[in-house]
Specification:
Jelly Rolls; 1 helix; Alginate lyase 2 domain-containing protein
Length: 202
């Protein structure tokens, strides 16, 4: 009976992952002529086809070398300039507190965030995490335009902590093992004011 319960739970988790990936519409890199570059068209929040996503089981780290080119300079002319965009991350799947209307990464997950800072003329980098649906966001560093930068999220299951780059750890309390990678997203509230290009090399 116990074995059947575990098998049933495992089947549910795997089914949720496959359904999630189906609806994400992730397109493999080999279909692109320049696969490291991910593009968000003007007035969109994310690429037409999701990129750089996939299934993860008990991930210890998600990391990539990322380059923001000059298209990542923008001026929204409002307080939305301070909103965080997202570049790499992960969301954990399967939970009693998971509403069908909520994206799993907005319940339990962590992402590296970014935004153009007109005062410093640099890209701010941040931690953007959800724990039980509660968001935490703060700056962890910065980088320059056209400067390849290693971004990472470490997951410590013993301490139950996310650590985005060298930032302060964010405590979580779930026991989830199944996750998926999240990709490039602009916003915040407003969509990209023009075409945005980011190089993401895993």
């Amino acid at each position: 009976m116990l074995l059947r319960s575990y098998a049933s739970r495992f089947f549910c988790y795997v089914s949720l992952l496959w359904v999630g990936l189906f609806f994400q519409g992730c397109v493999p890199d080999f279909l692109f002529s320049d696969p490291e570059w991910v593009v968000i068209e003007a007035f969109s929040h994310e690429p037409i086809f999701k990129r750089k996503t996939g299934i993860l089981i008990s991930p210890r780290e998600v990391a990539a070398t990322v380059t923001f080119d000059s298209t990542c300079i923008y001026d929204l002319q409002s307080v939305d300039q301070h909103d965080w965009n997202k570049v790499i991350g992960l969301g954990f799947v399967g939970s009693k507190n998971q509403d069908l209307g909520s994206a799993p990464h907005q319940v339990d997950g962590a992402r590296v965030a970014w935004r153009w800072n007109p005062e410093t003329q640099k890209i701010d980098l941040g931690c953007y995490a959800y724990v039980d649906g509660q968001r935490t966001a703060f700056k962890v560093g910065e980088t320059s335009i056209n400067q390849p930068t290693r971004l990472s999220i470490k997951i410590d299951y013993g301490r139950k902590e996310y650590r985005v780059m060298d930032g302060e750890p964010v405590r979580f309390n779930h026991n989830k093992k199944f996750a998926y990678k999240t990709g490039l997203y602009f916003g915040g509230n407003q969509p990209a004011p023009h075409t945005i290009r980011v190089r993401i090399k895993y």
